[in-house]
Amino acid sequence: MTTPDENSSPGYATARAFCITSACWMVIGAFVGLLGATELIAPDIAKNIGWLVFGRIRPIHINVVLFGFVTPGLLAAAFYYFPRLLRCELFSEKLGVFTVWVWNLTLVAAVISLAGGHTQGREYAELIWPIDVMVVAAFGLVFFNMVMTVRRRTEPLLYVSIWYGLAATILTAAVYALGNVIWRPDSGALAGMADAVILWFYGHSIFNLLLTPLAAGIAYYVIPRVVLSPLYSHRLAMLGFWSLMLVAPQIGTSHLLQVPLPTWLKVIAIADSIAMAIPVMAFLINIWYTAKGRLGEIHADIGAKFVFTGTIMYFFASLQGAVMALPQVQRVTHFNNWVVGHAHIGVLGFAGMIALGGMYYILPRITGKQLYSRLLADFQYWMVLIGVVGFTVVLTIAGMTQGNAWLNGHAVYRVLPMVHVYYIVRAALGLMLFTSAIVGLYNILRTLLSNPGGTP
Predict the structure, then answer these.
(1) I want to staple 134 with a disulfide (CB 3.0 to 4.6 A). Which of 106, 188, 309, 395 is the partner?
(2) Which CATH class is domain 13-447?
(3) Alpha-carbon distance 76 to 389, whole Å?
(4) 3-class DSSP state of 413
């Protein structure tokens, strides 16, 4: 099955705007993350500065990386391949650019409110009600632009990347509204255990129903184009899509195995965590078999190199996630740095790598000129790769140390000195990622703003 023939679609103003958004917020997100990592080494570094304390820095880092860096980077590529796969122009570039302004205004409001201590106090769902409304509106605008482009298409086949892009935007708008209890502006929460269930329905779905579909859509577009080979199997791609839609929403309760929830709800979460092997392997087999014997072409294209590496990270993140859902494993891994390492390999290693790859792939094609510096792009690739692998290894070791110590009855104050050295290494790796973000921003801006330097 081949991707449909591409036609020229001028402008790409929306894709450009999302590229700049992603690159800028990656710098901010990496800096805030580095600051938070530094505070874990020296807790008094932000003493008496309320808006810089760790309790405010952490949600800023999470929301900026999620909605500021990764999601806009993925959407940048989506707004490039949608009109090309559908053989028509984007429904409205003006609406797209307006959406980017709304998106950035929402992010600025989120950072200011969280730094000021205005929060709902719910993990991954910290933003206050007015900002929740803005987030849902932004996703609604993205979906409307995409679905109206689909409506005016001249290509009868809806390639799998289109399915993933549409599902990610509309489902995220719905899941975000539900998970943030948007119909209760006063509290943004339900009462008791019901709130924990719906919170983690959102918390896990924001990865499985937003980042995963958008990243998969990019991989399904970029890899066949770069290797000049038909997609291995469109049927396998659709199996991956529908199985993801079926099993992913129920996984969130796996974060609540230690709390008094009905056993049947926990069993469903554990079973579906293991069943995620179906959509994951359907996707990976499809991509890897498409690229089989053509890794040289992937290595030659910096965008494809980022994307393909992201698929490898997805394998490890998914394998780790399935194991972590087992109750016997969670006795050791829950509530410690193991989970933080898992989050980094999923969000940064998988979705972040593919977001960067998507942007580097489309930049020469939306500007009509070569990437400003392949050397800088390769430098960023290795810095991110070393950083995310280092994070995973270091935080996994720290998490195992914490988990086993707590399981054996050691007090927290005895455990902290054991993991201090790992926090130092973590901060050093964070500095690498912050440096890579600055390099990426410079490379992307120079590519977008400099005069044409050659044929892409």
Answers:
(1) 106
(2) mainly alpha
(3) 26
(4) helix
